[in-house]
């Protein structure tokens, strides 16, 4: 009898939906409270307030004051002087040249490492070098380039000894516009490699295979598939490189001194004090730099979000 009752109960049991078991509530040490989460990010907020927000607010207020602390717009009128405008223009040219050169060469290096079918050890080696070189700047970088491309630098002497070629007879100087641009490329190219590599990793192999199956050529793949996906990342990274070089001061000052009048060196002279000393004009110069770099970084953030949505 028990066997028949078991047999008859089988189909009926299949019609009854299972009752879900209640999810256990995790309390105590297994789950962090919101208070501890806020405490964890407090060092970031403290650092941002002390070293970013407060100094920025201080120089914004100082840009609208005279040495006596009275409100004035004279500092911004002085920004229209030919010397100040030339400093901004030279900085824009150096930043644009190093950003475009770094973006082009860095993109090619990243493409070769990711999709160039090179030996497996190339990519980790390139990424490790890029991580180090992108942070190598300031006085050590300036000293390295003077020892390499100065009038008695290693490369200059080797070219003259073995190829009978005097680099400085062509008008080149490490203290000039092109010398500073070349120095900036040392950290701009690795930075571009680090930024563009994840975007190249996002190109799916199936897209290339689908293009080949449909009879598409490599040029058509890059024109209609790859480049439309990559251009927001590449353009955004170029804007980031522009902002990165526009705000650089230690490398330029250590390399060229006052021989190349870029805006960061002029700002340094105005605030630290010399014959051009006008601290409030320096604040106005810094505010103009904040606007330029802020627009560049804003464009990079917008393009990055666009690239992430496109994937």
From TrEMBL:
It is found in: Cell membrane. Keywords: Cell membrane, Membrane, Transmembrane, Transmembrane helix, Transport. InterPro entries: MetI-like (IPR000515), MetI-like_sf (IPR035906). It is a multi-pass membrane protein. Residues 1-26 are annotated as: Disordered. Residues 88-302 form the ABC transmembrane type-1 domain. Its main location: membrane. The chain crosses the membrane at residues 35-64, 85-112, 132-154, 166-187, 224-243, 250-271, 283-303. Residues 1-13 have a biased composition (Low complexity). PANTHER family: INNER MEMBRANE ABC TRANSPORTER PERMEASE PROTEIN YDCU-RELATED, INNER MEMBRANE ABC TRANSPORTER PERMEASE PROTEIN YDCU-RELATED-RELATED. Belongs to the binding-protein-dependent transport system permease family. CysTW subfamily. This is ABC transporter permease subunit. It comes from Paraburkholderia acidicola.
């Amino acid at each position: 009898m028990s066997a028949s009752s078991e047999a008859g109960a089988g189909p009926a049991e299949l019609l009854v939906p299972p009752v879900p078991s209640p999810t256990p509530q995790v309390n105590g040490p297994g789950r962090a409270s919101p208070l501890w989460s806020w405490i964890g990010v407090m060092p970031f907020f403290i650092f941002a307030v002390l070293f970013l927000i407060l100094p920025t607010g201080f120089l914004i207020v100082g840009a609208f004051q005279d040495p006596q602390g009275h409100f004035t717009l004279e500092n911004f009128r002085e920004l229209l002087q030919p010397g100040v405008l030339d400093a901004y223009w030279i900085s824009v040219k150096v930043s644009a040249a190093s950003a475009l050169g770094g973006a082009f060469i860095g993109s090619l290096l990243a493409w070769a490492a990711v999709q160039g079918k090179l030996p497996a050890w190339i990519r980790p080696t390139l990424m490790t070098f890029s991580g180090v070189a992108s942070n190598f700047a300031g006085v050590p970088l300036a000293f390295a380039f003077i020892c390499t491309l100065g009038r008695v630098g290693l490369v200059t002497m080797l070219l003259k000894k073995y190829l009978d070629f005097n680099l400085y007879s062509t008008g080149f100087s490490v203290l000039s516009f092109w010398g500073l641009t070349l120095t900036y490329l040392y950290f701009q190219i690795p930075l571009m490699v680090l930024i563009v590599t994840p975007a190249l990793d996002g190109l799916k192999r199936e897209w290339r295979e689908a293009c080949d199956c449909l009879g598409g050529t490599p040029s058509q793949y890059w024109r209609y598939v790859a480049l439309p996906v990559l251009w927001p990342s590449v353009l955004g990274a170029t804007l980031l490189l522009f902002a990165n070089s526009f705000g650089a001061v230690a490398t330029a000052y250590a390399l060229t001194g006052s021989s190349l009048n870029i805006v960061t060196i002029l700002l340094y002279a105005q605030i630290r004090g010399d014959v051009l000393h006008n601290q409030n004009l320096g604040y106005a110069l810094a505010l103009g730099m904040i606007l330029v770099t802020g627009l560049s970084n804003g464009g990079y953030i917008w393009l990055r979000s666009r690239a992430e949505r496109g994937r």
